[in-house]
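Good morning N.,

You mentioned wanting to compare the apo and holo forms, so I went ahead and generated the holo version with 5-O-phosphono-beta-D-ribofuranosylamine. This is what I fed in:
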Amino acid sequence: MPESERDKRRVAVLISGRGSNMKSLVEQADGYEVVLVASNKPLAPGLEWARDRAIPTWTWDSRATDKASWEAALDRSLTDHRIGTVALAGFMRILSPEFIARWSGRIVNIHPSLLPKYRGLDTHRRAIEAGDELAGCSVHLVTDEVDAGDVIAKAEVPILAADTAAELEARVLAAEHLLYPKALSQFVSR
Ligand code: GRF
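and this is what came out, ligand included:
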């Protein structure tokens, strides 16, 4: 699809699970619209939530095929829906360099740490164990290197003395739900 026909305000959200960030992107949409929710997990609870709201969904179990076929099918769906921006939200699959190159500069992700600290998994436990006083979340551009693209927005959350990883996770998640819609609004209007 020629660059000029892509509408960056038409957003696809990619999920693998409950999709609470996807819900906040839908409910707080400002300057963009979530026109597709896609998943590599056909039973992801977030898909049902989207269907109930008549938001188009796409899913194909990524374990049922090879990565290139799966990504080609996703790419066709994104193109069919004239998607200009892809927002990863709890999407637990690493996209290939080829797919990322095709969507270069148009894929963002939310990560539950103050990047560049704690890329990857288990961010809350790692922040507590390091004795950090601040945790938080970051919205960043997606590049070939996991959780390493340019950060476009961050929110800080205090770590309290008695925090468990689960308690911190809940506090950070609440901050994610405010940060991601704002960051996406700014991203599509840049
Ligand atoms: C969030 O903490 C997000 O930052 C991380 O995975 C979690 C997904 O949660 N990438 P949800 O599916 O959005 O509820």
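The helical segments are 20-27, 45-52, 67-80, 97-102, 123-129, 165-188.

Happy to go through it together on a call whenever suits you.

Best,
F.
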